[in-house]
Amino acid sequence: LKGFPKVPFHRRFRTRFKYNTIENYDLFFNISTKPFLPESWKRTFRYLLKTTDAYIIPGGSNVPARYYGQKQFVEAISTTPIRTLYEYAFLYYLLNNQYNYMKNKPEYVILGLCYGHQLLNVATGGTLYQSIPIEVYKQSYITDIIQAKPDTIHRNYFLASNPPVTRTYNGWFHTLKILRNTPYILKQKKVYILSNHQQAVKKLGKNLAVIATSSDGKIIEIIQHKTYQNVIGIQGHPERQFGLERLNQFPKNTYRFHMHLW
């Protein structure tokens, strides 16, 4: 974290654990204020933008709730706060009015997948549901979820009801409601996508458009930047081998959707 202001002296010696957290740093990235970016980070971001064609943000842990001004759910804690801090800063540097370095390279591609989709929304001023079952569907128990319609399930909660004895990927397939065509998203009916997430976009970020939702319209599944159409967030996992190997089990529209995207 070279380049950030020094931690206040009285906070350095509470405990070693306390000192090694990033609580003194990620507050600089609260989207309700003007974030502070160290010059060393700006140089790195300019170099990345100059020397690469695209930035892909794959799945990961939860986005800390403080990044979008909410109290933190106990079951939605981030396990990769430094990764999130850095990626959030890069997205903010590229897309927000304070810096907006995408204008120097408007053809640059950003693809956020699952966590990356959520982080893209937060970095542009949006918020998240920290728990889809609790906040969206008012479900507090596993039995409530697995008795619901399959298209309202966004990860494989059946594994929690009957845990497997071998390692199993806990993804779940559900359909998309695609609202319009884009250069990368083909509007079709009955398209399945692999999902594995408990959080979702709540308030949409600035200059983002909704391209697809869950079939019931309650979960935003695909977003796209209005100015830079190469900036896309997809809530599902179209990149997972687990899903790609099973495309032939679904209607042909599902295969067409994935091939068109890639």
Output the keywords.
16% strand; two-stranded antiparallel ribbon; single chain; 7-stranded mixed β-sheet; 262 residues; alpha+beta
Protein model, in words:
- The protein is α+β, with helices and mostly antiparallel strands and 262 residues long.
- Helix content is 29%, strand content 16%.
- A hairpin with a 5-residue loop joins β8 and β9 (231-234).
- Mean pLDDT is 87; it is low at 9-22.
In short:
The protein is an alpha+beta fold and 262 residues long.
**Largest beta sheet: strand ordering:** 1-2-9-8-7-4-5
Radius of gyration, taken over Cα atoms and rounded to an integer in Å: 19 Å
Mean pLDDT: 87
Beta-strand fraction estimate: 15-25%
Low-confidence segments, ≥5 residues, pLDDT <50?
9-22
Order of helices and strands: HHHHEHEHEHHHEEEEEEHH
Number of helices: 11
- What is the molecular shape? globular
CA-to-CA gap between the ends?
A: 35 Å
Helix content: 25-40%
Largest sheet geometry = 7 strands, mixed
How many β-strand runs?
9
Helix-strand category: alpha+beta
Topology (SSEs and partners):
Elements: H1 9-12, H2 16-19, H3 23-26, H4 39-51, E1 54-57, H5 81-95, E2 109-113, H6 115-123, E3 128-129, H7 132-136, H8 142-146, H9 158-161, E4 172-178, E5 191-195, E6 200-201, E7 208-214, E8 220-225, E9 231-234, H10 241-244, H11 252-261
Parallel strand pairs: 1-2, 2-9
Antiparallel strand pairs: 3-6, 4-5, 4-7, 7-8, 8-9
Helix pairs in contact: 5-6
